[in-house]
Amino acid sequence: MTPLARAGIVLLLVILATAFRLGLLAYSFYALIALLVLAQLLGRGSLSGVVHERVVSRTQVEVGETVNVSTEVRNASGWPVLWVLTEDALQESLPVEGNRLAAAFLGGGASRVLKYKVTFPHRGYYPLGPLVLESGDLFGLVRRFRTGSRLDFVTVLPRVVGIGGYDVPTKKPVGEVRVRTRIHEDPTRLAGVREYLQGDPLNRIHWKTTARTGRLHSKVYDPSTMIGANLVVDFRREGYAAYELFERSELAITAAASLAAYILEHKQQVGLLTNGMDAVDRLAFELQEQESQSRSEARRLTELRVESDRLRPVEVPLRRGDFQLWQLRHVLARLELSDGLPLGELLLQEYPRLPRDAAVIVLAPEVPYSLATALGELKRSGFTIAAFVIAALPAWEQAAAALSVHNVPCYHLTDERQLAELAGIRF
Q1: CATH class in words for 226-276+313-424
Q2: Which of 111, 155, 363, 381 has its Cβ near the most Cβ atoms within 10 Å?
Q3: Per residue of the chain (427 residues), what is the pLDDT tens digit?
C-alpha cells in the first residue's frame, strides 16, 4: 500500500470519528496522521546524502582466480541515516566469500565498508554492481529504495592449452611462404641468378657469375610474406544442442584461444571472425541512479539488457605480436552466444575482404549444407581451409561427409586434452 493510500484511509477514519463524535478515537487518528507525516519526512531524505565507491583489486583474471572487492557506503550529509541496507548486486552463480549485504546506522559523515571476495570459475565479462540501497523511517512505515549508477567489470580470460604442433597441409603453410605474386623481396634470401634484363639496377648484378660467363647476370631474391590464419568461430546459439551448450561452446572458445596463442608464438598473424555477440555491446549503456517503490523492483533495475543491436560480426583484424594475443583473449572472454547470422551466410558476405594468404580455420558445432557450401566456395577462391567440428559423434560424421564433397579437411574435437595432442595431427 502506498503512503498516499494510507493517508487517505486515515483521513477517512478521522472524518468518520468526528462525524460520530468519537473524540478519543479522533485524537488517536490525529496522532496517527502526524506519525505518517513525520515518517514521510524522515524517509524521503534518508538516501539523498548516501554515496558509495567500489574498489576492485583486479579487473583481468584467469579462470579460477579470485578478486577482492571493497565497497564503501558513506553518508555525505550532516543528518544521520537511521538505518540503511546495502547490497552489491552480482550474478547468483558466482561464489562469494564475505559480506556483500549489510545493515548499518550512518551518522553524519560516517561510512560502512562491504568487503568480500569473488571467485570466477568460468571465462566471461562479469559486472560487479550496481549497489542496491534501502532505507526509511524509524517506524518502518516508509521505505525508500535506490540503485547506484556505478558498474565495475572483471574480464576472465579463456584458458590457453599448449599445442605441440600446427601444420596446414597446403602449399601455403603457416610461416614464410613463396607466393605467385611478388609482394616484396628479401635481399637476405638469394634464390639464384638469371641473365641481365634491361632496367635491372647495378646492385642486383651478380659479379662472380658475370665474370665467369662473360655475360651480365642479375641476382634473384626469394619473394616471401608472413601469413597465418583467420579463426572463424561459430557462436550462434541454434547450432549448439541444449544439453551440451555450455561445454561445447566453452571448448570452442578454448580451442580458438589456444590456436591463436600457438600461431602468434611462432611470429605469425592471427585474426578472428565470429557471429557471436560481444558482451560490451550488451552492457554498453549508462546506468542511472533510480529510486523504486520496493526491493524487488530495485533488483529488477539491476538486471542488464540481453539483446544486442550489433549488425556486423565481431572481428579482430589479422595481426601478430603480444598485443594481438592480449586483444584476442579479451574479445574471446567477452564473446556470448547470439542469434546472429548462420556462419555460412556470414562467410559468403565477408570472405571477399579477407586476405587469401591467410588460412581460414573454422571452429563449429555442426556443418550444415550452407556452411559446407560456403567453405567450398572459399576453397575454390584460393583460400586454405581447415575445420574443427566440436560435436558428438553423429554430428561429426555428418560434418565430415558434407566437407569431404568439397575436399575440405576437418577434425573432430571433443575435449581440451585433444588440443595438447595436436602435435601428431596435420590439419
Answers
A1: alpha beta
A2: 363
A3: 565 565 566 566 556 556 655 566 656 655 666 666 665 666 566 778 899 999 999 999 999 999 999 999 999 988 888 889 999 999 989 999 999 999 999 888 899 999 999 999 999 999 998 999 888 766 666 777 888 888 899 999 999 998 865 454 444 444 444 444 344 455 656 778 889 887 788 888 999 999 999 999 998 875 545 478 999 999 999 999 887 899 999 999 999 999 999 899 888 899 999 999 999 887 765 555 555 555 566 556 556 554 554 457 999 999 999 999 999 999 999 999 998 899 999 999 999 999 888 999 999 999 999 999 999 999 999 899 999 999 888 889 999 999 999 999 998 999 988 887 765 444 4
- Domain residue spans of the chain: 3-44, 50-157, 185-223, 226-276+313-424
In the chain, the amino acid numbered 255 is A
- Count Cα neighbours of 164 within 13 Å in the Cβ-side half-sphere: 10
CB count within 10 Å of CB 73 equals 24
Measure Cα distances from 39 to 6, 42, 76, 130, 190 in Å. Answer: 12, 5, 21, 27, 90
**Helices 343-350 and 369-380: angle between axes, nearest 10 degrees:** 20
CA torsion 303-306-310-313 (nearest 10°) is 130
Q: Which is the CATH superfamily of the domain at 50-157?
A: Immunoglobulins (2.60.40.10)
By the 10 Å C-beta count (0-12 exposed, 13-18 middle, 19+ buried), 292 is classed as middle
DSSP secondary structure letters along 300-366 = HHTPPP------S-EEEEEE-SHHHHHHHHHHHHHEE-B----HHHHHHHHGGGS-TTSEEEEEES-
Q: Do domains 50-157 and 226-276+313-424 have the same CATH topology?
A: no
C-alpha cell at 90: 552480482
- Cβ contacts of residue 370 below 8 Å, gap of 6+? 342, 344, 345
Cis peptide bond upstream of 130, omega within 30: yes
